[in-house]
Amino acid sequence: MAEPSRSSARVIAVANQKGGVGKTTTAINLATAMAATKKTVLIIDLDPQGNASTGLGIDRGAREVNSYHVMLGEAALADAVIATNIPGLSVVPSGVDLSGAEIELVEFERREHRLKESLAGSLAAYDYVLIDCPPSLNLLTLNALVAANAVMVPLQCEFFALEGVSHLIKTIERVRQAFNPGLELQGIILTMFDKRNNLSDQVAADVREYFGDKVYKTVIPRNVRVSEAPSHGKPVLLYDMKCTGSEAYINLASEVLKRERELLRA
Ligand SMILES: Nc1ncnc2c1ncn2[C@@H]1O[C@H](COP(=O)(O)OP(=O)(O)O)[C@@H](O)[C@H]1O
Ligand SMILES: [Mg+2]
Predict the structure, then answer these.
(1) Is residue 83 part of a domain?
(2) Which phi and psi (to 5°) does residue 139 adopt?
(3) Sign of CA dihedral 51, 52, 54, 55
(4) pLDDT at 69
(5) Residue of 21, 116, 249, 262 with fewest CB within 10 Å of its CB?
(6) Is it the case that residue 150 has pLDDT exceeding 60?
(7) pTM of the predicted structure, to 2 decimals
(8) Strand 82-83 with 89-92, pairing
(9) Which atom of ligand 1 lies closest to the CA of 27?
(10) How many Å lie between the centroid of ligand 1 and the Cα of residue 260?
(11) Minimal-distance CA residue to ligand 1 atom 2
(12) Is residue 142 part of a domain?
């Protein structure tokens, strides 16, 4: 049976206002695993820290045209796209200037729609666009949520995880009402799961009870190979394809793609 397909990219924002929960790691490795199944994928690095760009091996010198210029309307999105070493995977890198974009954008009309409008002409070129959000619910994240069809929320298995996410869920609800009625919660991915820690189990159980089947069956384990990979400028899938972290991201990608196929058929 032929796979159903979309004529334009599905845009997924990877968001959580908490730092260090695995947003960037998830964006990079989910995108890599999707590209490995012959999908054409674009990552937009919307964090001034540029960790997604670094983790994909993009030199600082190659980031002259970046998501800052796209957000400010100084460059077309297509002119900021850089190919990575992974076939089918490209990235719009970020630059440090992006940290000032929030203040500069205040003067613009429709400032929440900047990213959506700059993406419009490029959507046909990709199957998936993943937006790596900064650790804040600022105007950059708001732009990502307005541009996106769906949000994926990485959640670290730690105390207070649920309290933090309820704030994000309220923000998603407000974005739906004000700007983007079609915005879906793609899913919640439990990250940095430590099987020796009872708290991880307890948090995972609580999150599943609260969010039901919105939580992926796949859980990303805490795995030192995952944390080593970015310093080599590689997704963990390329750094060590056989480690538990890589396996988990491959499973996550197949779960996400399965959900996407079900949505297309529905
Ligand atoms: N599954 C994991 N196992 C071990 N370390 C991880 C894992 N996921 C992420 N990390 C590490 O934790 C830190 C925070 O992850 P990151 O993806 O950058 O989070 P965020 O983008 O939400 O700030 C990084 O140093 C990253 O390498
Ligand atoms: Mg990050």
Answers:
(1) yes
(2) -65, -30
(3) positive
(4) 96
(5) 262
(6) yes
(7) 0.97
(8) antiparallel
(9) 17
(10) 25
(11) 222
(12) yes
